[in-house]
Amino acid sequence: MTATLVTVRRSGARRRRIPVIAIVGLAVLAAACLAALLAPWLAPYPPDVPAGAGSQPPSLEHPLGTTTQGFDVLSQLLYGARTSLGVGLAVAGITTVMGLAIGVIAAYRGGWTDSVLSLLTNVFLVLPGLPLIVVLAAFLPPGPSTIILVLSITGWAFGARLFRSQALSLRTREFVAAAETAGMGRLRVMGTQIVPNMASIIAAFVVNQVVFAITAEASLEFLGLGDPTTISWGTMLFWAQTGSALLLGNWWEFVFPGLAIALTASMLTFVNYAVDETSSPRLQARELVHRFLGTGTRSSSLITPVRRTDASS
Amino acid sequence: MPRPDVSPATPAASAEVLRIDALEVGYVVADGVAPAVRGVDLTVRSGELVALAGESGCGKSTIAQSVLRILRPPGVITGGRILLEGEDVLAMSPARLRRVRWARAAIVMQNSLTALDPVHRVGDQIDEVVRAHRRDHGGGRHRTTGELLEMVGIDARRGRDYPHELSGGMRQRAAIAMALALSPSLIVMDEPTTALDVVVQREILAMVTALQHELGFGVLLISHDLPLLTRYADRIAVMKDGLVVEETTPAELAVTGGVDSYTRRLVASVPRPGTWEAA
Amino acid sequence: MLLLLRRLGFYAIALLIAIAVNFFVPRLAPGDPASALVAKLGTGADQASLESLRTAYGLTDDPLGVQFLQYLGNLATGDFGLSISRFPSPVTEVISGSLGWTVLLGSVALIIAYLLGSTLGIVAAWYRGSWFDRTVPPVLIFIGSFPYFFLALLLVYVFAVGLGWFPIGQAYSMPPEWSWEFVGDVLWHMTLPVTTVVLVTAGTWTLNMRNAMMSVTSEDYLALAEAKGLSVRAVVFRHGARNALLPSVTLLGGMIGAVVGGQVMVEIVFSYPGVGMILMNAVSAHDYPLIQTLFLIITVTVLAANFIVDIVYVLLDPRTREVTA
User: Fold this and answer.
1) Is the previous residue joined to C88 through a cis bond, with omega within 30 degrees of 0?
2) Residue numbers of A between 249 and 278 with CB closer than 8 Å to C
3) What is the pTM of this model?
């Protein structure tokens, strides 16, 4: 019995070619995580002790310069990565699990459960994120844990809606019905049939959430809602702003942490976009024709091309 | 009842409005072209209703869409000629094709709900095609949208409605009215009644043949509904696997039940409470 | 219109939940809410501030339900309490005026980003697979994944501090008056902030319109439009884009709440006299009545904007309207 179900599930799953750029992007993220983990060994100076004269531009001694208070920017960047990436991954993980749980349950059970959960989801989707986050964070002790908590509370709704609609469409597929008639419990059906078939959607979502979390965290810390004594990319920017690094001309104080955030976020977003693109069947149909004809514009005008394959006229 | 010869409302009553010669059409796949139409000859004359029958996948819809070259990617035409009033569609430039489209030949699609633009009024969708071709028809006057709608049995005021506000049958009539807007010599109908109920199907086809009497246009009707075709078609071409396996008339079909084995199977598979209504 | 009424009801529920959040969050902080808040104030907390807080939160000794009703009553009469950082000014006074600037900035940025992004998306979709389609959307998405405040800082640094083409901040430099000169001054100050928001959001519009166009072009009615021999322009715009607008407008509603957060950051970087600056100052001063009121006001604005979008959608899609006899 189990064997039959596994076979059926496999035939329902889609196989996707993973493009090179996705692998490159994920490799970059992995490298960043590695650098963060190895910060104590990689960083040339301790991040929280003044390591040199203040406001030094990048030099051999301090490759990324020093802040107004004399902290080494590179070391701060490496140690800060731990907090920033850590929070990002934590929030992504929590919101994915929450979104999955709520979305799949709502889709599968339907009825009142679905109505209530969907209403809740839609409310949290329509309420503006940042003000809500600020209200929550303002009353709690500052720090990464608060940020993780607050971002999770406000960030689960997106996933809940996405996974619900996916689960709804999967629910009517044959292998789910087969599992149900075979007497499989509802929880097991959800866990072993529905969720695994959403694997690629879940993966894309997690990537998205990491981007959201890292950016949101930095924004909160920039506003002053983080713990200024912890080191993260966001707090580095906070200190740069309050220390008027801009007006002093200390561009390195905010460019490097900002770039770190921006590059991490954009690389991940890009990965998602690239994966999306290569798996579109419509592209494949038009691409096939374009290659076959060997020439011509790519306009979507509907004029069926004529390419004679026989020798006569 | 045998259909009378079409009295010439147009100059050449038995002129060919559509002539398909050795047409080959395929779909591009990873390692070449998969053939869908493998050498088909077909002719439609003024005032004639020619039916193209066969099971799904035989290539009849492909032919219907190829006449106006609106077959979507990965479709590709690989051989033959399609002559509309003597001019080869496959040799036309895009500019020429745009002028000829709808003016010489128009198409009525299967699902009128998806074939009509949902955000524009029905009347506007008819008006726009007249406006678009205004330059080309310097001579005669076109019928107005109101007249066209009345001709197909729709109150002219319904032109202000949106497609979703009309019933399925009315929508299809509106689509036919739209097809007649530029007085084309050929109308291609791709399974136009499949989505409608039986009574409405008959009404619409009866209306089409009546209009043919009056206006003299030819019709290429794609359908898999054999009983319907035997009642309204002048000639029936049966297709299988990209080829026409038999060309016959309803009268012959009633007598022979089909010469080709495939035709015979097609005829035999139809549930029939009565006899053929060929005469 | 039933659809619109249902949406209105939904927004009412959302607002109620927002108000409830405002009510319960201070009570969730450990310990006696008022003291906990006061403890955060540090020096400068005097009896008057304490009382203001107490009344602002309805922190009386009545049961919770009664307190909530009192709170609702206060809101209904426009009593949002007194600001702590600008004691004893009422919160509404502190906020007034700034909302207008935020809405101005937001509307202009939204319109420009939407039009620009959507147009690029239409072109990208029509020439699917061309160099344009392969470079423009990815580039916009790349730029769009930068955090708002970072792009703002970059723009300020390069164009204001560095090149001096635009002012570093504020909404205007001359005393306000109704003249073309003033309008020009305002526009000049708005350029960089608007550009920031447009850069971040344009990619989303492009991608959305592009995907919407792609699914519309595979519809039967577009093939029919081509079969009718209509011009390319008529096919693309009258039939293609006009239908692709529908999912595009739907996204518009969803994006408004998200863009507000980003815009707040931009306002802070540019010292723009909108709600962003007030929020930041409120946060650093622990001015809770102000923070909470800002939350409510921004929420109401966003919900109202969403409702306007709903109306626009009904106007655009005849299928949502009741069938006229």
Assistant:
1) yes
2) 249, 251, 254-255, 258, 261-262, 265-266, 268-270, 273
3) 0.83
